[in-house]
Every structure is written in structure tokens, then in C-alpha cells.
Amino acid sequence: MTTRTEIQNWVRPLLDSTLDLVLERDLLLVRPVRHLLRGVYFWPSSSRDLPNIGWFMIPLFDAPTPSRGLRLSNEIPVGSSAGSGFSRLMEERVRWSLESYVGPVDTIQKLRDYAVVERPPSDGGFSARTLDKYPREYAPVLSALGLLDEARSILRPALVRDETYFRGELNDGQALLAKRSNSRAGKSKVEFANFHLPILAELRNLLVFLDQEDRAAIAALLHEWERQNVAKWGVEHLWEPTPFPVETQAD
């Protein structure tokens, strides 16, 4: 398990960087924090001497979820913290990742441009698929950029598919619990559905505003999602709220 003291010691040389960095618990973040949260994570590992370190970039205006996820991320291989030369290697690779991949992506447009391109992990690719393969995450980005037709075209079918699926899971789970109140499968299905259905309801609100082409309402909803996500990540003191492109473009 990586300790807070170890993280503080590891990042100390990195804080003296060409980038404006700040350590927040287990995250080394690039400032300013506006619409995007970017940086390097130091998360728990199953091995005492093999730290779990990686870089990430996420839009703060995703539809809020109860969990913290880093879909647009990748591991930074640094080896064993018990090995000779670990600190130097870790610093070099983290610095490279920040300056080459994370730091330059400082606007929503740059996030879109970067995150839809397939790359190998060794060249700045993500451990998961590219952003455009996830309509529920991609539609808010397109909406924020004012690309309303494109956002609408990918969000509507995704919602129809996902709502049908999760409502089916909820119904199946409730049916199992009706037969046996302590059904583990029933509880799992209900919990799974109840996690996702509120997210889909938020996205359904976005789709309504997209259909109406109500840019002010779209921006207000994205600002509210951003506010909730900023609180979830505990970065209120770093956040610099700014307008979205969708609300600054001429009609």
C-alpha cells in the first residue's frame, strides 16, 4: 500500500516543474482546473513495492455518478519502489507523461481532438477505448462544444439501448427478490440498475435540451454537473468556473 508520505516524497521534485502542479491527496493535478481535471494518480496497489501510478484527463461536466472513474487514463510503468534508481525513473516518466500527454490538453476542444484518436499505450493511448466509443461520456463533450446535432445523434440511440437494458435488469432483479427476498442475484441486478438509471435520467434531460436547441439550458445543466463533480473530487478550492463554448457562440 502506497502511503501519503511516500507520495509526497516522490512528487516533491515534480512540483518544481514548467507545469503548474499541486498535490491533492493521491492526485498530482495540473492547474488551472477549469472544465477538465488532469494529472497523475497514485492509487492503492495489491503490492507494497509496486505502486499504481498513471496519468489521466477527464471532463468535469460528465453526468454525475457516485463513483470516481478515470476512463481516459493509462498506467505509467515505474517498476518496484524498492529498486535502485526508482525515484529518478518515476520522476522522469511522470514528468514525461505530464508534459507530453496531459499538460497540452487544456481545453475541451483539445480534449476532444486528443481523446478520439487511437494510439498505442506507449504513445499516449488510453488503457480503455477512445472517448468517441462511449456515447454517454462523449455527448456532453460535444454539447459543451456546441456541436448539438452530433451530440443528439449519438446520445439518443445510446439512451434507448441503455434504458431498455437497465430497466430490464431492474425488473429481473425485482422479480427474483419477489420470489426470494435474500436473492443475491436479485439484489445485484437491482443495485446495478439503480446505479445507472439516475445517470441515464440526467442524460435524458440533456437530450431534451439538445432537441430544443436551448444552448442556455444545456450550459446550465453542464455547469451543474460540473459543480457536482468538482465536489465529488474535492477540488472546489482549485476550480475556476468558466463559460462553455456552447454559451459563448453566436446563434
Jot down its keywords.
5-stranded antiparallel beta sheet, 5 strands, 251 residues, alpha+beta
Describe what this molecule looks like in 3D.
The chain has 251 residues and is α+β, with helices and mostly antiparallel strands. The chain has two domains: 127 residues, no CATH class; 74 residues. It contains eight helices and five strands; from the N terminus they run H-E-E-E-E-E-H-H-H-H-H-H-H.
- Write the H/E string, N to C: HEEEEEHHHHHHH
Rg (C-alpha, Å): 20 Å
Number of helices: 8
Shape: globular
**Spatial order of the strands forming the largest sheet:** 1-2-3-4-5
Give the biggest sheet.
5 strands, antiparallel
Number of strands: 5
**Spans of at least 5 consecutive residues with low confidence:** none
What is the structure about, briefly put?
With 251 residues, the protein is of the alpha+beta class.
How are the SSEs placed, and which strands pair?
Blueprint (H helix, E strand, L loop, with lengths): L3 H12 L5 E4 L2 E4 L5 E8 L8 E8 L13 E3 L10 H17 L5 H8 L19 H10 L3 H32 L4 H29 L2 H19 L11 H4 L3
Antiparallel strand pairs: 1-2, 2-3, 3-4, 4-5
Helix pairs in contact: 1-2, 4-5, 5-6, 6-7
